[in-house]
Amino acid sequence: MRVRDHIGLSFANLWKRKLRTCLTAFGVTIGIGALVSMVSFGKGMQKNVTESFRSLDLFNSLTVFSEDFFTGERFDPDRRPAQPLPSGASRAVLDDAALEKIAALKGVDTVFPDVRIPAIVRFNGKDEFRLVQVIPAKVTSSRMLRFSAGKGYASDEEDSLIISDSLLRQFGVQEPQALLGKKMVISSIGFDFSRLNPANLTAALGGERLPFTTEDTELTIVGVAESQAFAGPIPIQSDVFIPPGVSKRMKKLPFSNIWDLFRAREGRLGYSAINVRLSSPAFVEPVKKEVAGMGLRVFALADQFKEVQKGFLILNMVLAAVGMIAIVVASLGIVNTMVMSILERYSEIGIMKAVGASDRDVRRIFFFESSVIGFIGGVFGFALGWAVSGVINRVVNYFLAKQGVPYIAYFSFPVWLALGAIAFSVAVSLAAGVYPAMRAARVDPVRALRHD
């Protein structure tokens, strides 16, 4: 028998038992749909993170900390370090000198300290507390920031700022374009040393006149940045951005966290961290070695991404394993359908063998019937997985949009997933049809012809 004859006979046999065939194929459809949905979710999350890293140039980013910033132990300022420094040596400090030294390294494009100013942001009659981040103009024109309206400030001395669209929603503004050119007030806190004189010390400790002053700085909104999915890049995590020149003119506290106070006690007050952008990912390792040689610690997002990929690999394996449970159940349905078909067509098989059909021909007929069920289930299963995933994605984004989270495609359907789902469905169906095909091939034609 030719292949075309096998296919035609298989479809004819399945069409005679339409209800049973549809129910069996529906079981395969459910299994493939579940598998496709779970695998596409894992691939979608991995694609989102990878594209976010690439689009924001995070593979070119480094974050530099002082040597004792991450020790793995609880900080104790009164405890001496486990490894004392050599005689005459001092701990590296992240100050302007260190910043200039790092900026001079080959491959370094931009260097800026991690400065965040506690402040009250006033606009439209509302107040919001935020840590205002200081970033240079060169960074605002890079791909680290995406704008829904406007653009970055032109220079480091410009009296302007950039805010996020999520903060705009907190102020009750829905249209970012309408905010460009409007004024926003940043109320920062300064330290007033005059209030610490002996005459005012008792009152200050009593809370009547704390040694702090506030200063209002009015700035023009020049850009509205999009809120980044997955918390955005580590160097850029704020709702308000101002130029360095504006920051220098503002009254502000010399610290933004408790760690700064501990470092100030030891006489090592500097920046808590320095962000470094490289001109190419090829300079990541050379710059890391140079900075480590200065007695500083380096965190590379490129290295972290390798760990993220390992996590996604495990996630994909777990999701695929869960989806395989439905496939195993569906394969049992195929076995049951094929075995029942043998019992119903016992005499038919005997006649076929009596007129010259070989065991190989009989096996092929049942293999083709199984593969047809698998093909139908694979095609409709992929379609079902795609449709269900689309509905879930829309529902999730609908509720997250109310919280200011940008749209995210949580599921990804590459071409290989569609082809792989159909091929896998056919392969599982063929495996499920092995036993029925072998059993049909062993039918004795004499006994089959006598079968009532």
Radius of gyration: 34 Å
Poorly predicted regions: 70-90
Strand order of the largest sheet: 3-4-9-6-8-7
Largest sheet data: 6 strands, mixed, barrel
* CA-based shape: elongated
Assembly context of the chains: single chain
> What is the end-to-end distance?
27 Å
Q: Could you give the order of the helices and strands?
A: HHEHEEEHEEHEHEEHHEHEHHHHHH
Q: Could you report the average pLDDT, rounded to the nearest whole number?
A: 78
Strand content: 15-25%
Please bin the fraction of helical residues. 40-55%
- The secondary structure category is alpha+beta
Question: Mind sketching the topology for me?
Answer:
Layout: H1 3-16, H2 18-55, E1 61-66, H3 96-103, E2 108-113, E3 115-123, E4 126-134, H4 137-140, E5 147-150, E6 160-164, H5 165-170, E7 183-191, H6 198-205, E8 212-225, E9 240-242, H7 244-249, H8 258-265, E10 274-278, H9 284-293, E11 296-300, H10 301-344, H11 346-354, H12 359-401, H13 415-432, H14 434-441, H15 445-450
Parallel strand pairs: 4-9, 6-8
Antiparallel strand pairs: 1-10, 1-11, 2-10, 3-4, 3-7, 5-8, 6-9, 7-8
Characterise the protein shown here.
- The chain is elongated, with a radius of gyration of 34 Å.
- The chain contains 15 helices and eleven strands.
- It folds into two domains: 3-53 and 308-450, no CATH class; 60-300, no CATH class.
- By secondary structure, the protein is α+β, with helices and mostly antiparallel strands.
- A six-stranded mixed β-barrel has the order 3-4-9-6-8-7. The protein has a four-stranded antiparallel beta sheet with strand order 2-10-1-11.
- A hairpin with a 2-residue loop joins β3 and β4 (126-134).
- 51% of the residues lie in helices and 17% in strands.
- α2 packs across α12 (359-401) and α10 packs parallel to α14 (434-441).
